[in-house]
Fold FAD-dependent oxidoreductase.
Amino acid sequence: MGTDKAIDKLDTIVIGWGKGGKTLAGVLARAGEKVAIVEQSAQMYGGTCINIGCVPTKTLIHDAEQVGGGEPDPQRFERAVQRRDDLTAMLRAKNYSMLNDLESTLVITGHASFIDPKTIVVRTEQEELELSAERIIINTGAQPAIPKIEGAQITGRVHDSTSIQHAPLPASLIVVGGGYVGVEFASMFGQFGSKVTVLDRGQRALSKEDADVAAEVQSCLEDANVTILSHAQVNEISQDDSSATVSFEVDGERQQLSAEAVLVALGRTPATDGLNLQAAGVQTGERGEIVVDEFLATNVEGIYALGDVRGGQQFTYVSLDDHRVLANHLLGDGTRSIRDREAVPYTIFCTPPLSRVGLSEDQARAEGRDIKIAVKKAAAVAAMPRPKIVGDPRGIIKFVVDAHSDQILGAALMHVDSQEVINLVAMAIRVKMTATQLKDQIFTHPSSTEAINEVLGELR
Ligand SMILES: Cc1cc2nc3c(=O)[nH]c(=O)nc-3n(C[C@H](O)[C@H](O)[C@H](O)COP(=O)(O)OP(=O)(O)OC[C@H]3O[C@@H](n4cnc5c(N)ncnc54)[C@H](O)[C@@H]3O)c2cc1C
Ligand SMILES: NC(=O)c1ccc[n+]([C@@H]2O[C@H](COP(=O)([O-])OP(=O)(O)OC[C@H]3O[C@@H](n4cnc5c(N)ncnc54)[C@H](O)[C@@H]3O)[C@@H](O)[C@H]2O)c1
């Protein structure tokens, strides 16, 4: 698929098919603009989320949860991989036609780089194309960070989050990095039967979470065949025909572990290499991120950036909201800004999922706030039969509330369906609902949401 339409003069070029950029391309085209979207790989129409990020990983996690541990079953894993591939192929094709079917949108498959502030060159499989437009929007996402660890190059038994999705089910796996990617893959492979060890340099697992919440996650990971080693500073990775070995230090003591495969998950770096931003004069920051103002404008007139490439929180829904800010700035009344976001929640899809919004107890205390806490293990919530019905009553539910105003400051929900319930809590925070008002809402039954009635009754 390449350039099958001729559009004489472009108004906007979008570089990279990320969530925000593709949505904005559609909005601008429907508003009458002539738009080109440039994506470097036909396997990436639709961007990271649907091809190598959220959707494929959550599909595998869902299927792993149906297995729930035991001996590795490669055939079952292969069936899950096939289901994932079918789903991502369907979404990729749909994404392609969503833009390509628009009369005034040109889809170009090739790698883009700047020649000057209004012009890019696109290297397709067949040719080099020069494209110019008054407005250029950069939405090239992020890529796995390459750590300064000897032997950490992605080859053979050493993987990043993309390559491991195409590797056979390992009997044993070492995950370097206990962040989102590390925890999700550890939990997933553990439930498919791999013996998993996570090495993280943090003081304890999930060190950004309160100790009681992190302990619950760690306990559920242990149920899933996963061991977490904290304070682990990885120095070297080596591999041969049969295994890979990771050398690391814990409190100055040198240790080694071997496994069939290693996953390196040490963050994602804004994808600005190869864009030749100097030719356009676009300013970047310390991590290579494109520097933008609150309306997503770069320092160069007519050039904007959105999504992971501009630094900030790396979530699909943040990239999507970036598109709302930019659309409002370009076509609307200009009142939206990335600074007006409040209570942005997140979910780490371990099993059961951990979802968070706002302040943790530790953060609230560090800010010197006078707070009340409500906390209960999910299994102890009498009026929440849903997790028991679906067979996983594990987890913890915690609310942090201002002792004087009764405003909800934050929540940590770790239980079945928490990825849904957290959105309701986030909205309650945004509309400034008090904890008492939220506690007394009517919720459906049997649902996971109704735990809120009981847990918020425990505030003290
Ligand atoms: C394994 C994994 C799981 C994740 N799970 C979640 C999750 O559950 N929930 C969540 O919200 N977020 C998740 N994320 C993060 C989320 O995927 C990203 O934050 C989001 O996809 C970023 O979107 P974006 O709009 O910045 O661009 P992307 O979707 O990253 O798109 C950028 C596109 O630009 C293309 N490109 C790059 N350079 C060029 C160039 N020079 N020329 C042409 N094209 C180029 C790339 O090929 C890519 O398709 C996950 C990420 C990973 C890696
Ligand atoms: N469910 C989701 O929303 C989801 C899922 C996956 C990824 N993501 C996004 O992708 C981004 C990247 O995820 P990630 O997990 O790669 O990065 P991350 O920043 O979340 O985690 C990296 C981890 O590696 C550890 N670390 C760093 N250097 C180390 C070293 N040398 N030795 C040992 N440990 C080290 C850090 O302490 C940290 O815990 C996330 O920030 C997130 O925004 C989101």
Notes: Residues 74-100 form the longest helix (27 residues).
